[in-house]
């Protein structure tokens, strides 16, 4: 048993009247002891549920991110005129609406905006569709290459994916506790803020509940993270909604602006695409990359147009929408996908030899 961890557990687990928030250093210590499994399973489970009940603070999340930075390897910087866009989606996936992030990432990369995604397999308690399954369906196997090779692929193609079980096994070791406690612990918030890239980056953080955005901003202020975008997205993802106003926060330096995008103002209003089988969704994605008109293609253009503009790759939302549509209709997204597949195959060939 870790007596050091027990003292931290007592602070967060003392109930609504006497529990205390941890300092940034204390939170870093607690997270480190959990990642290294120096705290016992009983202590880790108790901490997770107690911390959920208490609710994490921005300072505590900053400390948790410090521990992730200390113990997890990061992708080294690449040469890029545009900061790498790191899109942070909930690890427990989607259960109601169709995920767009892989297709959006492909289009952005084809436009010269490098993108990094991260996540794992199906994860408690939601057990929704994770992004890695969609990448697999598209023929992109991120699971078999090392972090060093992901870095080379990112440099070559503008796309990368950090796969938790392979690239950050210490964090993967905490996943089983989610199922055992039956609730999402504060680590699920941490994952919406974690940046596995070491160079100049632009964090995109999806969320569901408005207080979460305040935690993001508090933690980022403490850590000196100044370029980020918050999105009240579909099921907490980075995907912009089409059946309601998109609520977006945009930080750059010391400035934070609020943007509300009304889809009908730009001709994109529609019902959200329901979740279908992975096979059907992959077929729809491939059709969109062939430029075949569909609601999925429209949803992709809506998202990509915003992100191209936000990344500084175009001067207006309207030009972003036009650029995204052209990338799909001209087959540039399909060619980018094939480039990524070939880059991964080349890495696997080196490994087999």
UniProtKB/TrEMBL annotation:
Residue span, Glycosyl transferase family 3 N-terminal domain: 6-69
Gene3D superfamilies (alphabetical): Nucleoside phosphorylase/phosphoribosyltransferase catalytic domain, Transferase, Pyrimidine Nucleoside Phosphorylase, Chain C
Domain Glycosyl transferase family: 99-333
Superkingdom, natural source: Bacteria
SUPFAM superfamilies assigned: Nucleoside phosphorylase/phosphoribosyltransferase catalytic domain, Nucleoside phosphorylase/phosphoribosyltransferase N-terminal domain
Gene Ontology MF: a single term: anthranilate phosphoribosyltransferase activity
GO biological process terms, semicolon-separated: L-tryptophan biosynthetic process
GO-annotated cellular components: cytosol
Keywords: Amino-acid biosynthesis, Aromatic amino acid biosynthesis, Glycosyltransferase, Transferase
InterPro entries (alphabetical): Anthranilate_Pribosyl_Tfrase (IPR005940), Glycosyl_Trfase_fam3 (IPR000312), Glycosyl_Trfase_fam3_N_dom (IPR017459), Glycosyl_Trfase_fam3_N_dom_sf (IPR036320), Nuc_phospho_transferase (IPR035902)
Name of this chain's protein: Anthranilate phosphoribosyltransferase
